[in-house]
Amino acid sequence: MTHKQIxxxxxxxxxxxxIDEDLATLTFYAxxxxxxxxxxxxxxxxxxxxxLRWNCVxxxxxxxxxNYKQKTILALAILLHKYGFADKQITEKALTAIDDLNNxxxxxxxxxxxxxxIKAFINTTPVPLKKKPTTPENITFYREQxxxxxxxxxxxxxxxxxxxxxxxxxxxxxxxDGTFDKVPALEELDGLNARGQVYNDGVARVSxxxxxxxxxxxxxxxxxxxxxxxxxxKPSNNHLAKSVGLYAMSDLFEIQDTIIKMFNLVKE
Length: 268
Known about the structure:
It is a single chain. This protein is α+β, with helices and mostly antiparallel strands. The chain has two domains: 121 residues, no CATH class; 118 residues, no CATH class. The chain is 39% helix and 14% strand. The strands form two sheets. It has a six-stranded mixed β-sheet with strand order 7-1-2-3-6-8, covered by helices on one side. The chain is globular. The model has no long low-confidence stretch (mean pLDDT 96).
């Protein structure tokens, strides 16, 4: 049995592809950083970042079905194994998810018959990769003038998409100056200024970010929510100092750290 054979049985093509692309990106950078001894180990770099994103599914209290959560944790365990990693808690939850999916008759008879074989596979020691994985193609289904909310640790941060870096490539976003307990309505953003990043000189400056990996609409990880499309009114940044450059290059995981810093959050 192979990783692909198990993942195909989940009948969740794009869920699997989304997690796979996220892990390919994180593993690529983890292997680079590990080579230069700038991280403790690869999994300690990957796990907090992947969970901060996919916990938006796993910890959701509404709008996400139990079956989807179970497929997500199982796919995460299998794909971590594919990239040479294992986490005890994720593995245990994945083993439980297999039983839950079978009890709900959510998947095929073949999945049911091979449940024990799948469990045994998950429990095998993963083989570390010998070379860095290929990073995914940088495309997006978001568009200029979309307004989105990005969830981070139970809070939501709204952002305006000014343009794309190419016809279907990284959205360039600017954050609104607001923090929300749920996805805000467009009316709640009316009148909010843009949030600027404060740099080492203590000055808040216009801050735009090009986000690679911000691909699927809707987002399979439930982290990014579309608030509205074709919004002409941009958040005002006239109160901010001139930007350092046109925009900063980022991705779905670097932007997590940016939000923590920009909104003065305490990183656990």
